[in-house]
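Ticket #4471: structure export looks truncated?
Reporter: QA, pipeline team
Priority: medium

Steps to reproduce: submit the single chain below to the structure queue and open the exported record.
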Amino acid sequence: MPKATLEYLNKIQSASVLCLGDLMLDRYIYGQATRLSPEAPVPIVSVRRKTFMPGGLGNVVMNLHSLGAKPLAVGVVGSDPSAQILNDLFSKVLDPKAISLIESPKRPTTVKTRVIAGIQQVVRFDEEWEIPLTDDVALSYQKAVSPLLSISGAVAASDYGKGVLSQAFCAWLMEKANDHKLAVVIDPKGADYGRYRGATLVTPNRQELALATSEDLTGASEEKIIEVGRKLMEKNDLKNLLVTLSEGGMTLLTSEGQNLHFPTKAREVFDVSGAGDTVVAAMAACLASGLGLAAGAEIATLAAAVVVGKVGTATASPAEIIDSLGPPSQ
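Actual output as written to the record:
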């Protein structure tokens, strides 16, 4: 294992990262499927257990905690039992003062339920409203975020298109982050990247990059990814771009003109759920620690490789990352 990797992992233990964006609850139903239903050509899953995990923004929080960093977060929830479940999940591992949940009575807590048969996800159903926040909730959210900027080392923002990261909020966030000299790392959604103008780093995957540029990137070469990524950066005045390519690793495009590729360690991929959250968490933690983009991309690549080898929304700890690299270099 490269000594630098261990130094990076040690350094992010002191990182304080403010997590913003779309909070959700991930519900998993695990079981076995051994036959098809006589009512329709669908598998019958015999349920064995059920679990809940924080998802979206919540998964970024849990990834930061697993890496040893210090997350702060502001999320929006509904007035429902799912909000209480999220609060209980956070309270088990974090200081209650680190998490602020803004209640929006007119919209439910976003819940994504995945049914897993063996190690295979067979269906997912979502309970959500993809609408903007009401003015009063948006104002409450902004007021909760404001005092946390001065005690954070970086910002990690998760955009799942649920209305929290509106154009107005993003513009306000970029201005305030600039005032506090904070790096902002964004996991994007949709085709309009103009609202991310001013962010330090945006982290689309291949499909998201294709959507944002109206390009077919199926099987695209690294050169094509770089070409399309650079056009997106220029069009939207993005400082840096990290394109995640699943088993293809990651490609970092910097404002200085560097194009750096980070291959991933070959391993069996069980589930990519939440891998983007892991990347944002690792990048934000590294930038909050004073590490550069390249160091962050290296740690993000390693952490994501650990996470996709697990079933369900997952996290990666320093010990798991170190273990995945094998014995230390002599």
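Status: closed, not a bug. The export was complete when the record was re-opened. Leaving a note from the reviewer for reference: The first strand starts at residue 16 and ends at 21.
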